[in-house]
Amino acid sequence: MRILYSAIDQAVPGTKGGSVHVQAVAEGLAALGHDVHALVSPGSGPFPPGRVKWRALLPPFGMNQLRWLRSSAVGRIVDDLRPDVIMERYYNFGGEAIPHAPRAGALAVLEVNAPVIDYPGSRKALVDRLLIVQPMRTWRERLCAASDVIVTPSAAILPPGTPAAKILEVEWGADTERFNPQRPGSMPGLSGTIAVFAGAFRNWHGAIHFARALKALRARGRQDIGGLFVGDGPELAAVRAELDGQPNVLVTGAVAHESMPNVLAAAHIGVAPFDLQQHKPLALGFYWSPLKIFEYMASGLPVVAPRVARIPQLVEHGREGWLYDPADPDGLADALARLTDETLRTTLGTNARARALREYSWRAHCEALDRRFTSARAAR
Q1: Measured between alpha carbons, how far is residue 197 from residues 187, 239, 263, 332 in Å?
Q2: Each residue of 323-332: pLDDT tens digit?
Q3: What pLDDT was estimated at residue 210?
């Protein structure tokens, strides 16, 4: 199939989760034999080599809120390309690609990993209501209605009444070939059992809870657990302040995604201390499909995470990781201490890797897309 994948608010190559996702899906579909043309913002270097035909298409003035204004440009590409499938990565102010699908006779696929519906107390919803006709809600619901297939980790973030037959609930994934336990990895300056947090330093990702747990462990005399912090974001300064004076910790800042497999190979535990109370949209439920968890598991790391929402469905406590009660002030520190047991850690890591291969690889994700594209086109 010829597939046009529109994700023009995402930079490729890039280090953020959205960029990693878009590149992995485009390359995964191409690896299955599809002719993939991807519309993205140009990233920090040249487009990745390989089978995907990358096309640079920035939102006007670099403003994602104006992404929908690229509809005419995308329409010209559709007329020239005549794709069998048009897949658009959902964004509140998107809709530049899906409306062209009927004219091209293409399957319309909406990829949704952020809420289409408004969460309680949303200021955007308030503005929409003040405009009387609620144009933003109307436009989002129209996009969903116009889609033949909606791909999402959670149907709870879709408009009520969305037909179940058009929804494909599937997790995002990890590159299980690049992220694997056999990779070499070392982290000079750290010793003992190394626990890693990798990702965005935003308050709902909870890196500061990891820093405070390490501080609590030091107060118990536990210097044998090293803390590795990888990434960047607005909470980084607060995390650094919390770590000030602590031994056996390292903050790397942002790291190119192609280097992450070696970074994780240097660690023994993957930490994902999400704080759902810090992000209002999560009142709708834990709709994320967290790349960090899947990359930890693919790397053979047991996962330490809070026992909330659907995280226990992603990581089984005592089998692939160790889940803690976020209401317990010692929960995260105790979980880290528990996984200094090498035998337990190895067993959990082996199980985590096996589940990642079965369920959380980008290949598995793209094979699920391929099956749905084929069946949906046949049904039409």
Answers
A1: 14, 12, 11, 13
A2: 999 999 999 9
A3: 98
How far is it, in rounded angstroms, from Cα 12 to Cα 56? Answer: 9
**Concatenated DSSP letters for 227-253?**
EEEE--STTHHHHHHHHTT-SSEEEEE
- Choose among 81, 86, 89, 72: nearest CA to 17: 89
Beta strand ranges found along 258-352 (DSSP E): 269-271, 303-306, 321-324
- Under 8 Å between Cβ of 270 and 293: yes
Query: Is the domain defined by 2-173+361-379 classed in CATH 2.40.160.20?
Result: no
Run of H or E residues at 141: helix 135-146
Cα–Cα distance measured from residue 264 to residue 268, given in angstroms and rounded to the nearest whole number = 8
CA distance 127 to 129: 5
Query: What's the pLDDT at 26?
Result: 98
Q: Is the pLDDT at 125 greater than 70, yes or no?
A: no
Residue 62 pLDDT more than 70?
Answer: yes
Best CA proximity match to 141, nearest among 122, 125, 120, 123 = 125
Pick the more confident residue, 256 or 124. Answer: 256
Q: Which of 211, 283, 205, 287 is nearest to 251 (CA)?
A: 211
For 142-201, write each residue's pLDDT tens digit: 999 999 999 999 999 999 999 999 999 999 999 999 999 988 878 888 999 999 999 999
Fold adopted by 193-359? Rossmann fold (3.40.50)
Gap between the Cα atoms of 115 and 152, Å rounded? 10
- Asked whether this chain's domains 2-173+361-379 and 193-359 adopt the same fold, the reply is yes
Please, are residues 88 and 129 in contact by the beta-carbon 8 Å criterion?
A: no
Average confidence (pLDDT) over 276-301: 90
Angle between helices 342-359 and 291-298 (to 10 degrees): 110
Q: What are the φ/ψ torsions at residue 373 (nearest 5 degrees)?
A: -60, -45
Determine phi and psi for 5, rounding to 5 degrees.
-115, 110
Q: State residue 366's pLDDT score.
A: 97
Which pTM value belongs to this model?
0.90
Beta bridge partners of 230: 198, 253
Sorted by where each begins, the domain ranges of the chain are 2-173+361-379, 193-359
Tens-digit pLDDT profile for residues 129-145? 666 666 677 788 899 99
